[in-house]
Amino acid sequence: MNETCGFIFIIIGLAFDFFGCLGLVRFPDVYNRLHSSVKCVTLGTSSILFGLFLYRGFSPAGIKALLCILFLMLTAPVSAHVISRSAHRSGVKLWEKSACDKYAEDGKDK
Amino acid sequence: MRLRILLFVLAFFIWLLLTWSLDPQHIAAGFIIGLLVSFLTADIFDKPPQVFKNLKRYVWFLYYVMVFIWECIKANIDGAYRTVHPDLPINPGIVKVKTTLKSDAGLTFLANSLSLKPGTMTVDVDKEKGFLYIHWADVKTQDIDKATELITGKFERILKRIFA
């Protein structure tokens, strides 16, 4: 039973990781690509790790997988924030059809 | 000193989870490394440990985790939909929202969970003036107050009770 549930979680995670990577190719600029990579890849990888925990149970590998979910949830958004902030500060423009850019209007990217 | 003891207990606990065995060698190594880490890094944390005593905050934190996981799942379905749609239904832009949170931990949690919420990603935080710059994949309004209500409203009400 646990093995079946684990495999289902791993398959769902692989699907979301695939969508994340597809978004990385399809979206037009750095910021939109970060959107798809940070959201889909974080939950997709967490789902794979949770599937591993269900499959292996309370063994060293299973507990490490649970801890990895915690650290991934804490660090992935921080890295997305740092990449987008440094991209904006080093002059990477938004997509030309973007609605607004309050960050440049406030002169924060100097 | 109390902060150091708290840090040591936390580091030792995570070490035990990571090794997941009760072998005396592992426990001794974890004890020494925990002591080292807690005495070297305690200066980084400037928050007094008394704040952790309030039980109500833990209950609100559990509620926050549940809301956060639900938003995270919604964000993934939303992101997958935007990715596979042939016309790429996005209308991106960076908007500015207000925040009333003051503490470092509260702002970190708010910015991190906004990055995993559907369609928003934190670009920068202005701590002195209390502004967040958010990259929004689907800009519905450019007005500060309306955008604040739409983006941060739900999370900020919960986080205010945890990190007040």
Largest sheet of chain A: none
Count of discrete domains of chain A: 1
Mean of the pLDDT scores of chain B? 84
Flag low-confidence runs of chain B: none
Number-wise, the strands of chain A total 0
Radius of gyration of chain A: 18 Å
Major protein interface: A-B, 49 and 40 residues
Q: How many distinct folded domains of chain B?
A: 2
* Large-scale geometry of chain A: elongated
| Beta fraction of chain A | under 5%
Q: What is the strand tally of chain B?
A: 3
Q: Kindly report the oligomeric state of this protein.
A: heterodimer
Share of residues in strands of chain B: 5-15%
What distance separates the N and C termini of chain B? Answer: 24 Å
Order of helices and strands of chain A: HHHH
Structure annotation, total helices of chain A: 4
Structural class of chain B: mainly alpha
The largest β sheet of chain B comes out as: 3 strands, antiparallel
Strand order of the largest sheet of chain B: 1-3-2
